[in-house]
Write a structure and sequence with these properties.
Elements: E1 9-10, H1 18-26, H2 35-46, H3 50-57, H4 59-71, E2 78-82, H5 88-95, E3 99-104, H6 107-117, E4 121-123, E5 137-143, H7 152-160, E6 163-174, E7 195-196, H8 199-208, E8 213-216, H9 256-271, H10 274-286, E9 301-307
Parallel strand pairs: 2-3, 2-5, 3-4, 5-6
Antiparallel strand pairs: 1-7, 6-9, 8-9
Amino acid sequence: MVCGQCRASFARPLKVDGEVYELVYRYAWRTPGYHEYFTFADGVRRATDPLSYLEAVSPVHWVVGRYLREKSKGRVPRILEVGCGLGYFTYALSRAGYDATGVDISREAVEKARRRYGDLFVCADLLSGGCDDLGRFDVVVCTEMIEHVEDPGAVLRAAQGYLEDDGELVLTTPNKSAFPENAVWETDLPPVHLWWFTPGSIEFLAAGAGFSGVRFRDFAGCPSGWVHPDRSRDFSRPVGRPVFDRKGRLFFEGSRKLAFRLALRNLARRAGVLDTILHLKRGAAGRGSAPGPSGSSGHANLCAVLAR
């Protein structure tokens, strides 16, 4: 479905399946689309400077990290990461000197994050008031989260309630405007991703939630590149496929080719060379393209800053 007002695409039914996320985080190391997060979670523990490590391998963390450095001039902001998942970004921010707390609805993810990185995390639902005792923050961060929720407007309104008067919400999400108009759904399949946003749809949501303004961050200079779609493909026919069956089993477990690839990837991770491979691959993807604002049509993700 496509919203006639803001051009966002959305799933029907708009329903979060919590069990899917427990499965994703339980098997993150071998789940397509999420095994990279497992690599990041492991990589920050080995890195001398975890935030610099993430910025070098992930455009999303690079653009948010640059924003936070500008925001923190002269003070150390309090940061709440909503949808912290495996916890590696909250941990990297804490190691960089920020006062950072991570929150996620997945008990599986939060327990893993606490075991890896310490007591920086809360298992709670922002919408149910589970974070009320945490106080207010200078920045609320939502990286690749808003597309997962049933009611993104409600999440933005809830996040606003945790901001100081001059606070800001910074979010990233897959960018629908990077694809041709006839693209049906070029992001994770429902019920994982329920929304696919354009810059205009983020502006529409922000206005409805009472934010005073929106500005989009520039990815220019990002060392890890970004993905541009192959426009020779027929985007009216989505290529995504389900990952788990009804019993929670990975569909590809019987694929010898994919199993072999993941085994090699795991060996490379253990040998400490996977981070270098990811960095080189992203750099190659970014070469030969002129970077522009994150809200423009060429970039796979957008980054928006919403002023309270």
